[in-house]
Amino acid sequence: MAHLHTRGTAVTWPTLAPAPRVDLPTYAFNRQRYWLDVAAPSEQAPGLAVDDAFWSAVEGDDVERLAHTLGVHGDDGRAPLQELMPMLSDWRRRSRERSALDDLRYGVTWEPVTEPAALPTGTWLVVTAGGSAADACTDALVRQGVDVVRVETTPGKSIVDPLRDALPGTPLQGVLSLLSLTDAPEPSLITASALALVRALGDLDVRAPLWCVTREAVAVGTDRDIRPEQAQIWGLGRVVALEHSDRWGGLVDLPAELDQRALTRLCAVLAGATGEDQVAVRPRGLLARRLTRLPQPKGREEHRWTPRGTVLVTGGTGALGAHVARWLARAGAEHLVLTSRRGPAAPEAAALEAELIALGAEVTIAACDVADRDALAALVGGFAANGSEIRAVVHTAGVAQSSPISDTGIEQLTAISSGKSDGARNLDEVFADADLDAFILFSSTAGVWGGAGQSAYGAANAYLDALAARRRMRGRTATSIAWGTWAGGGMAAQDDAEAQLRRRGVRPLTPESALALLQQALDHDESFLTVADIDWDRFTLSFTSGRPSPLLDGIPEARQSRTAVESGTQKVSRLDEQLAGLSGAEREQVLVEVVRTHAAVVLGHADAEGIAADKPFRDLGFDSLAAVEFRNRLNETTGLQLPATSIFDYPTPRELAAHLRTAWDGDEVTENSVLAEIDRLESRLVAVAAGAGDRTHPDIAARLDALMARWGARKGEAADAGAAEHIQSATRDEVFDFIDNELGI
After folding, report:
1. From CA 169, how far away is CA 286, in angstroms rounded?
2. What is the pTM of this model?
3. Which of 67, 173, 531, 699 is 20 to 30 Å from the Cα of 43, by its Cα?
């Protein structure tokens, strides 16, 4: 068939091969191998070869071949095989499908952790917004001998100035956020305050690890309650761990009853001896969060869930909502109510309505913002008054995000929360007393393990997962599914997000597979499920590039990859040994290879061969999120503190390597090293200006003018040519002292 196809004959490939297509590279001369390696028949065990022959005959519906494999002869022997063939073929198909779907299912478990004897020491910055629980935690640290510097703030108010005024002159061992333990009247302010704290610590260049404490944010074992607004801190924290791995400590959740034993365990976790960064403190001890594979439930009779009556789909005219609506219509839903902010005016709304009607469903497309509780209640009440009772709810509405924490303000946090978490809360309240057949929340893996550039989105989706758990605790139906990316539209299709995720090991789900897993979850009445197609070798490498993550230890493939990563880290940790004794040019060449190697890993290349030393990073395929990951890897390797803008400041691997060598060679003063010091000086001036408000600094301005005048005079006078030689021969400290003395800062 391929031979005919290459000569112009039209071939209907989907009919011949219904499996999903794989897009191959469009460039013709890449020598990388993309095909799976299959063991030669001679290498297979005899039993395996027989099995393959048997199932190959079944899958090919080849009775003759099956009879030959089984050693059956004559028509009498073939007749039973002919009758069995359809059943065998169907069983084989369903078995393969079930196995493929099982590979996409993940859950969250909690693993006991030995309580360490270590306790926190030194000076800790403790940030609170009041509350008896925050007072108890602070007192516990003081009793352990910790020097506590406490900062009180009000939710919704700026935290930069109070932090700046409180920072001690001595180094900090850690920063403890107790902001979520306040009795704030507005739960949404808890997440906003935490985001503001993370940004403020970055602005003030506080490098001590940040620990965030919550209370009943996660459901562990027999817990009887959960607070979704607290869970948002966990969603946010997982993103901070990825974007600012160098200044992140972890998340600690406290139980409802805060006794002395719980406080002691909190202090033990803060000491960092557990090696865990997502810990729940419970009466029975410490428990650490793990991602695990989640096979289909066994031991219970499967009940096929079928939609009936009226089904409400929020975000129903979007890409995911449309997929769900078609699935519901095919499954027999009588009436579909699709809501969105624009309603019938949304693009493709009319075409979708016609398609659903053709599938046999009555369709209502309504303009309704689910973040507006009154509007939602009026919509639902209107259907109830007309005798059209809503039997199931599917919440797919949401707003995408792709911005680092440093660029995420309160306005963006509010916008993302309104469609996702506020909408889910309103649906929960409006249908609080309704006996629904299903209450389905479309969540995201951003709320399960985080995602660079998705701080607000991760917080909102963690809220959805917690909301589903709370509904279950209250005896109501709820299913939250944290999806990976979907093919065929959705948020991942915007810009080049899907390509970025593929590079990080996250492959898009086919809508057919995703909907099959949704059906499974409803058939088995599951409350929470993570569905994603992950290349664990690539994902683990990317996910742990900034810091190790015990979260993935429950996945065997991730554990193996983590071992390989740690082995590689040990090798690059000896960079100082590699550079010792080399000349400046030799050092730079080694650093060029280091830069190329890390760039290849971030971009998903098999090796560094495709990373040219003089090719701009932007032409290699770097984006802002890849730049952050790249920066984190270089910081880990070199021990330096590079900005996320490094690939823009030094646009090629060779230029960046030259900068690294300059930073590494502390005492060698060159033009590049002086420029680096000027960059440092500029950042200090920006920090001074940021804290000045409307005040000016005439002394600094005068010193700068004097320095420029003196430099210009020296440059222009031949008699003063020795000044340049003096700069070249000066040590790094002498240059710094000169700048500091001249500017007085």
Report:
1. 34
2. 0.73
3. 67
